[in-house]
Every structure is written in C-alpha cells, then in structure tokens.
Amino acid sequence: MKFIVQALVSRLVETGNLTITYPDGTRQVFGDGTGNPVHMRLNSRKAVWGIALDPAYYLGHHYGTGDVDIIEGDIYGLLKAVFTGSPDFKYYDTFWSRVLERGRYLLRWAREKNSIVRSRRNVQHHYDLTGALYDLFLDQDRQYSCAYFERPDQTLDEAQLAKKRHIAAKLNINRPGQSVLDIGSGWGGMALYLARQLGAKVTGVTLSDEQHALSVKRANEAGLAGDIEFLLQDYRNTEGPFDRIVSVGMFEHVGRPNYLTFFKKSASLLKRDGVMLLHTIGRTDRPSANNPFIEKYIFPGGYIPALSEVMQAVEKSGLAVTDVEILRLHYAETLRHWRERFMARRDEAKALYDEKFCRIWEFYLAASESAFRWQNLVVFQLQLAHDQEAVPLTREYIGRGEDCLKAHEGNPKGDRRGARQFPQEASL
C-alpha cells in the first residue's frame, strides 16, 4: 500500500514542502520545497493501509489513535499542503474515491433518518460534553456557529456579536413583544440578544441537557426569565404560532430525510405575516455524502446540504424564499480563532478528557477550517415567509436595523426602548 500513498500524495502535493516517513524508516519528500515544511510520520502498517484506501476517514482516525504523527509543522499545515498543493488534482477525482463516495451517498438515508429519539442521542454526543471544554475556545457568549466579520481585524467576540446583530436585523422585529421561536437555541445567546435588544418574547428549544440548563441560568441571571422560555424539546413537538422563527447552526443536524418535515413544521408555526431566518452550513457544489470522520467522531446523523436540496424542500413546504445570502470565508476565520484558542489551551482540554480526544478535536477544527477556506463549504442565510410583503421591498432595512442595534448595544443601562425603533419601508 505504500506505493499507493506515494502515487496519491505526489499528485496532490506538487508545490509546498511535505515529507512522509513510513513505518520501515524510509522517507519521501513531496512538493517543490516552497513554504513551511511539514513532516508526517506513519507509525504503523494499518496507518499506511488506511490512508491508501480511505484518507477522508483514516487520516483523522489514525491521527487520533497516534498511528500518525506530525513531527514538523502541524495538522493544519499538512491539510494546507494537501488542499493547495495542486491546481488540477483533488483526492476525490480518483476512481476509488468516487466509488467510496457513491457507496456512502447510497447509504445516506439510513444514517440521516433522525427520529426524535435518535436526534436527541446525536445532539447529546457532541453538545453535552462538559461546558468547560467550550469555554476554552468559544467567545464569551458561547456562539458555536459562524461569526460575521465586518472587518478583518475584528475579534471573535466582536464578530459573533455582529452575527447576532445581522440576523436580528433580517428578522425585522418591528415592535416589542413579538414572539420568536429559536430552533436549536444552543446556550441561549441569540434568544438573550433578541429579548434584551428588541423586547422580543422568545421560546428556545434544544435537545441538549447541558445547553438547556445553562440557558435557563443565563436568562434568570439577566433578569429576562419573563421574556424567554427555554424548552428541552424537539422542534417537531413545538406548538405555535410565532411572529418570527430563527434557527442558527441547527439545520445541519436535521438530515435529508427530514428536510420537508422541518420546513412544513416551520411553516405551520410561522404566522401568515411572519419571517423566518435559517442560518446553516452548506456546500457550493452538488449533493454528496457526509464526511466519514465528522460523521463518526463529531456530528453523527448530520449532513451539510447543497442549496438545491434545501430549496427543493422549501418549495414543497408552502414557504417562499425572500432573501438568500452566502457567507464566504466567514466560517474559515471563525474556525481559525477556535483552532488557535483550542491549541493555546490544549493542556486544559487534555486534563478534561485525554490525548486521543485532543487529537481528534485538533483534526476536526483544522479540517473544518480547511473545508471552508480551500474546499466547498460556505454558510447559507435564507429568509423565508408566507407573504412576500412580510419584509420591506429592498435590503436597506437590514443595514439600518444593524445601525440601530449597534447604537443600542452600547447602552450601559440596558434600556430596551431605542433598538425597537426600526425604520420601515412601505411595501408595494
């Protein structure tokens, strides 16, 4: 299998400076010697076999088990060499990789058919890890989704605040007391923002015990318990109606067999003059199989959709698309911050779990950043409504809404009156 690894890597890495040492002690250098050097050591024959047969899964798996080591550079540098080392060749262009992807694609319904029980189990696998882990690398508000970088020099906390502001403006909440459903409410940051800044009455639903407990605690401490209700509940069991629906970073866990269910349920919960904002990771190319490493170790049952897959379900749900925005590279920058923060506090993560866990998460964060920076992942923001007059005719209201919110966020007394005055445009 050694010759297969050599043949594959030699086509992937035409530029750069990558050295691979094999279990028998032999080594080979790939690339043209430019850039920062990276040296990968394969410590076992099973690592050689795994990378030869299925690198999409086994590179991360064997890095986690210690069968692969990076002895110069880091795992992010290795992925950069692989993804940027050839302008004309990608791993998934090979015959064998297409066979593997086709097999995974055909089995997608079995993996992604998330019942209420299975959805809860999948969410708990990731989100019920100790909160101390997420404190190591997330912003102060624990936003575990793509930030919105208005400027390259923004801090992570500033960019996550900008993300909440951008979404709030798109929701077009125009009077106090409007009801909002937050599907997949996480640790409560979006709900707290909408209640605090806009006087909204928010219901948040999550399947994570850890997230639910902290959300309730945060609402109580903020004095917003009367404005926010967090439920440990599947969205499919939620009762409405609501003036607004927001869902940030949850749709990736729905699974393709449930797309139509998700949008039909959302349509039934949204008032006739209501607005919904969906923020989700998406792919820029055709529908495909989920990444096998991410499927096993990070997000079981999840799937990142092509826009065509989302739109097909929306069209059948009774909702209309009123706005689409593609956030390019924002998640790459978000993940860069997370990766650097995690690595700076890696010893603390190891004290919480173990070395294998840290290696798996190193690879997860580095591979995810690579996918957004050099491959096919972006973020979709879809605004949906029953009535096409539910939002103003032009997009200028978004910028004006953000300006109002930005001015109000600096109010040290927390007076919620100012941000409610969103300028409105007349509809035709």
TrEMBL record:
Q: Does the keyword Ligase apply?
A: no
| Domain DUF7884: from-to ranges | 15-85
Q: Which UniProt keywords are present, listed alphabetically?
A: Lipid metabolism, Methyltransferase, S-adenosyl-L-methionine, Transferase
User: Gene3D superfamilies, from UniProt?
Assistant: Vaccinia Virus protein VP39
Q: Where is this region: Disordered?
A: 404-428
Basic and acidic residues compositional bias: what residue ranges?
A: 404-418
Q: Which InterPro entries match?
A: CFA/CMAS (IPR050723), CMAS (IPR003333), DUF7884 (IPR057206), SAM-dependent_MTases_sf (IPR029063)
What is the name of this protein? Cyclopropane-fatty-acyl-phospholipid synthase family protein
Its taxonomic placement starts with:
Bacteria, Pseudomonadati, Pseudomonadota, Alphaproteobacteria, Hyphomicrobiales
